[in-house]
Amino acid sequence: MSDSNISAFPLHRRRKLVEGIARILESKNGEDANAFWRNTAKQILVQLSESGIAPRLAEQEVGTLLHAVLSDIATRSALTLA
Fold first, then answer.
1. Is 29 exposed, middle or buried (0-12, 13-18, 19+ CB in 10 A)?
2. What average pLDDT does range 28-40 have in this prediction?
3. 71-82 pLDDT, tens per residue?
4. Which one of 6, 28, 37, 64 is at 20 to 30 Å from 58 when CA atoms are compared?
5. Where are the chain's structural domains?
6. What is the rounded average pLDDT of the residues 40-49?
7. Do 21 and 33 contact (CB within 8 A), yes or no?
8. Cα-to-chain-centroid distance, residue 41
9. From the centroid of its chain, how far is CA 81?
10. Angle, helix 15-26 to helix 55-81, in steps of 10 degrees
């Protein structure tokens, strides 16, 4: 049996997901924010794995999602300061 070639709709393009995670992270500080992100990432990795997504691709998706979340936070912060 070979590795799966299944790919998911890119997580970083799911605006509600990105914005929802960003808003929660903005409301947390320090270890609370870290714990929230680790838990969220772990849950997403499990969901992707259960959907048949290869582990390396799932990890890449979660990493790209984190960048999108951080970008969303930075954009919103810049707009607030402007």
1. exposed
2. 97
3. 999 998 888 887
4. 28
5. 11-81
6. 96
7. no
8. 6
9. 25
10. 60
Tokens of 42: 């772990």
**Shortest CA distance to 65 belongs to which of 6, 27, 14, 3?**
14
Locate 65 and state its tokens.
Answer: 């999602």
The encoded tokens of residue 26 equal 């903005």
Task: Show the CA angle centred on residue 26, arms to residues 41 and 48, nearest 5°.
Answer: 15
Nearest to 7 by CA among 64, 62, 51: 51
pTM assigned to the model: 0.85
**Can you give the pLDDT at residue 9?**
82
Instruction: Please provide the average confidence, as pLDDT, over all residues in the chain.
Output: 90
